[in-house]
Amino acid sequence: MTNVLILPLLIPLAAAALSLLLPQRAGPRRALALGATAALTSVAAGLLHTVWHEGVQVLRVGGWEAPVGITLAADLLSAMMVLLSGAMGFLCVVYSAGSLEERQEAGAHYPLVLVMLAGVSGSFLTADLFNLFVWFELMLVASFVLLALEAERERLEACLKYMTLSLLGSALFLIALALLYAVGGSLNLADLAMRLPGTKQPPLATAAAMLLLAVFGLKSAAFPFSFWLPASYHTPPVVVTALFSALLTKVGVYALFRTFTLLFSGDPALTQPVILGMAVLSMLVGVTGAVVQYDLRRLLSFEIISQVGYLLVGLGLSTRMALAAAIAYWVHYVCAKSALFFVTGALERITGTHHLGKMGGLSRTHPLLGLLFLVPALSLAGIPPFSGFFAKMGLLRAALRAEAWGVAAVGAGVGLLTLYILIKVWREVFWKTPLQEARGPSGPAAMLGPCVVLALVMLGLGLGAQPLFVLSDAAAGQLLDRDTYIHAVLGGDT
Amino acid sequence: METGLILVVGMLYAAAIYSMLRRSTVRLALGLVLLGSATNLALFTTNKVTRSLPPLLPKSGGPVGQLADPVPQSFILTAIVINFGMLALLLVLVHLAERTVGSDEMKHLNTEVPPPSAPGE
């Protein structure tokens, strides 16, 4: 029992509230957001350290015992994800300072980002399905408003689509919770995990499992629930898109990992083919959608779908090796994707467009940006020595070892197509003779700094992949070791 | 008791889906209102629905078996609050959309085609 667990929720929430009280000027709000995300990151790092040394950490809020009260729990996966979100939040705040206008910064941007971070941390740390729903909604409300700020027609359309689908997802989520409660009589994850195998109504539990799969699939933009993402992610400022891609879809994936390793692990013959099918189709649909796109942001949005497919491969196979590889891939992919979006923002600032056909020749005028684009691009495609190579390799090896030949083949093929797409982007943006000479600075240091940091992280994770893989492997081990989690959450007497 | 509720839930869902499929943002919002209510009622039926017994245990102890289960009720309470907030936001959005494109028709929001009477475009 440790009170540290409440801090990743309290820090961003308190900072958001405080931020709204500050005068509407860019400076103080920015400073507060920087401080809060830095604090969140360091607390999360401390939490990860504690979990690594002492095992699953549990906080019973208000001292109520587990199945009754609200429980927060952190295992390695949760702690890693909170750390990753905090760090990404910090980089996004830095990037906002460079890329947004003074007016935007002075408005609701920072408070909303902080509320969203609180929702995301809450989703990672909660040990209760109903609380997961509440944190989801908190995160969604913040994301709706971030998407709809400065209402232009295009953004209104995107936000309305996104909001409708999210509300539909929330309704399905509640129905799934109703079914689970009717079957298991509890919504505490650990309690439910104990009760579900002994219930008399497996069909209802299966229906709930499928509903949850649909809901979390919707949140994580896995096929066939993916079409809202490219329709809405290309409209807000690029930093918001980067933040969404780093956090929102990942929360969906996390919820899938949590529920399908803990609650519905009893009937793998049923769930595994479904998840693997979703994974394979997500990879294919995402990458084929991206191939034909010439709008840089839409292209990257389709890429998100295909990368989520890779993460689901790990869950679909559900071996320790596959889960470990998926978690390592997760870390790498969040870094690579955000870096790509960050560079896109700089490119848009220089060329004033995000259409590939209108860019060109930037390798001569802005060689540094070229390098900063190349590192995440090669990493995403899985070229050594960057982080993507080992992560993708691990996933493919896990698929081969599980004798899922088709999955491995699709994974490898999609990797090649990803390389093709990014080469296309590279050729269009950096090599082609430009229509007009683009000159001008590459952007302020606050924009390029996060790109440089992420590029170094990717190089570091590529050259020194060992620690990440050890950590991911341990996290995967914890995911598969359900009893320890249940025991830790429910307390000593069960 | 449950049968009646289930019928109501079914009808609400049907109405919700019908309105959401109309090509108007206002009806979409109405559909989502109905969807939320239907879901809350569905949540209500998950445990035994009882008549005129509060979900509270009297201090002296009481008829435990016949009490309503308080947990789904607290879930619904939370869900209603969240739903309400979401709908407020949705209505603001619909209003903004209406003001921006001058109509509640969804096709006018579609950015693939130009707006009906956009000045200067």
List keywords for this structure.
heterodimer; A: 494 residues; mainly alpha; two-stranded antiparallel ribbon; 21 helices; 2 strands; 77% helix; 2% strand; B: 121 residues; Helix Hairpins; 4 helices; elongated; cell membrane (chain A); CPA3_Na-H_Antiporter_D (chain A); membrane (chain A)
Q: Strand share of the residues of chain A?
A: under 5%
User: Stretches of chain A where pLDDT falls below 50 for ≥5 residues?
Assistant: none
> In oligomeric terms, what are we looking at?
heterodimer
Largest sheet entry of chain A: 2 strands, antiparallel
Q: Could you say what the CATH topology of chain B is called? A: Helix Hairpins
Intertermini distance of chain A? 16 Å
Helices and strands of chain B, in N-to-C order? HHHH
Low-pLDDT sequence parts of chain B: none
Count structural domains of chain B.
Answer: 1
Second-tier CATH architecture of chain B: Orthogonal Bundle
